[in-house]
Amino acid sequence: MNKIHSIELLNKAVGDELQSIHQYLYFHFHFEDRGYEMFSKLFEQISIVEMKHLELLADRILFLGGDVELRPTKGVEKINEPKLMLELAKKMESESVSNYNEWAKIIGEELDVVTKRLFEELAEQEETHYNEFDIETDNCNDFGDIYLALQSMKRCNKEFAE
Ligand SMILES: [Fe+2]
Ligand SMILES: [Fe+2]
Q1: How many angstroms does the Cα of residue 12 sit away from the middle of ligand 2?
Q2: What pLDDT shows up at residue 153?
């Protein structure tokens, strides 16, 4: 097992997860500000899942004797158009899936099966995130602006009911 290489790839994954957490929280804040409750919740929930991924990666890094480099791979992109926000989220998830698949293969060949399995589990979960964002992209395309308007109306109904 090449612990140094495992730690290096795990820290790359930490950077990607941090980038996702920041980007999705940014989207969550903006959707919430505009009253798009469903999208706001979706990004909040997925950012929390990414935090759990980060924790799993950090646990493994520390177990291997490394330290956690909390540096996001990239800064937040300040995009505010719902379809472009979903497009960016899909791109980030699909890059994560392909990175985790590649890193699982490399690390498996270096006989660190626990880290390999972690990358495989994360790849599987990032695929489900991709799928969520893809469904919402299709809904925006199929229903147009009414889809966003309904999210705002749902929020208003809830507030008036309380
Ligand atoms: Fe993740
Ligand atoms: Fe994800």
Answers
A1: 15
A2: 74
pLDDT digits (tens, 9 = 90+) for 75-88: 999 999 999 999 99
Distance 11 CA to ligand 1 centre (A): 13
Percent of the chain scoring above 90 in pLDDT: 85
Q: 92 C-alpha to center of ligand 2: Å?
A: 8
Cβ proximity of 14 and 111 under 8 Å: no
Residues 6+ apart with CB under 8 A from 101: 119, 120, 123
Asked: is 3-161 a CATH 1.20.1260.10 domain? The reply is yes
Q: Which long-range contacts (CB under 8 A, 24 or more apart) does 102-111 make?
A: 103/9, 103/12, 103/13, 106/5, 106/9, 107/5, 107/6, 107/9, 110/1, 110/2, 110/5, 110/6, 111/1
Domain ranges of the chain: 3-161
Q: How far is the CA of 22 from the centre of ligand 2 (A)?
A: 12
Distance 122 CA to ligand 1 centre (A): 6
Ligand nearest to the CA of 55: 1
